[in-house]
Amino acid sequence: MNGVVNIYKEKGLTSFAVVKAARRIFGTKKCGHLGTLDPMAEGVLPVCLGFATKLVDYMMAVDKEYVAQFRLGQSTDSYDSTGEVTAENHDIKPSKDDVEKVLKGFIGEVELTVPAFSAVKINGKRAYDLARQGEIEDAGQRVMSIRDISLMSYDYPDGMMRMQCYKGTYVRSVIHEMGLKLGTYANMTGLIRTVNGQFSHKDALRLSKLDSMKEEGRLTEAVIPVDKATGWPVAVVKDEALKLVNNGLSVKAHNYASVPDIETDMYFLADRKGTLLAFAKRGRGDTPFIIVKLLV
Fold it and tell me: Do domains 3-61+199-227 and 63-196 have the same CATH topology?
């Protein structure tokens, strides 16, 4: 089975546990998720099946939206409520206007500290492993791209915010830094990923639902074809050029039965029956597409 399943990861599960469950439910070893969610977080966790795993790196490069809860006055080593408290200050109680102003200041490209308890690698080792051994206090600095932030509710010390950002952005890093800019401390107390590229929490399926669909023989209904999941257009290869394409060769324009009238960065190549053969990037001149990777 090939395609993408929009799964709703429930709080308490690791992202790996969701992938492991998907392997069991769909009966395939080839599974990969599109962006880790911490165990305390919930929400959209798209999982790629079969040859769709070859597109993981490309499908992860999308905008995401989160709804996060936070608490002022206290910081932790993990920047969220699961960590050990490292500092407290309950004397400063910022106003709603103060919080909104600081949050809006994060919009754009901003350099923030990556939490020590994160999955990034430092010299080949996961940061969270190094943090548990007491070897690091944070995982360094990273430029994070934030499209928009809005304060949804606030009643000191608790608040809720919505954030739209690009991959590689840590919501708890934003909340941690927000606390410091307000002259106090802050940590994240809850997180829901509501959007991951084209996938929304409104359409996401829980693992229990997938189990039920499997029992009913309706599991294929949960799998979204990769061309629909990515939105990439499809170019159709002529029969006489199929062998060349299947060998990984980027063929000339006259070898295509149809070429999409859409200019974008990525495309799929398919045969006349609609079977996807490869994905490609836009080419030049008489070679309209350059094959990136075969799907067959």
Answer: yes
CATH class for the domain made up of 3-61+199-227: alpha beta
Q: How far apart are CA 156 and CA 255, in angstroms?
A: 65
| Domain locations in the chain as residue ranges | 3-61+199-227, 63-196, 232-294
* List of residues 6+ apart from 15 with CB closer than 8 A: 9, 33, 36, 37, 45
Per-position DSSP letters for 71-123, written without gaps between them: EESEEETTSBTTS-EEEE--S----HHHHHHHHHTT-EEEEEEEESSSS-EET
- Which is the CATH superfamily of the domain at 232-294? PUA domain (2.30.130.10)
Quick one: pLDDT at residue 246? Answer: 96
Q: Which amino acid does the sequence have at 284? A: R
Give 138's pLDDT tier (boundaries 50, 70, 90).
confident
Residue 21: pLDDT over 90: yes
Note the CATH architecture for domain 63-196. 2-Layer Sandwich (3.30)
How high does pLDDT run on average in the chain?
94
User: By the 8 A CB rule, do 28 and 236 touch?
Assistant: no
Q: Let me know: does 239 contact 251? Beta carbons within 8 Å.
A: no
pTM for the full model?
A: 0.90
pLDDT for res 120: 83
**Which of these, 180, 183, 92, 34, lies nearest to 172 by C-alpha position?**
180
Catalytic site residue from 38, 148, 203, 227: 38
265 is catalytic: no
pLDDT at 57 over 80: yes
Longest dimension (CA), the chain: 76
Tokens of 228: 């629909």
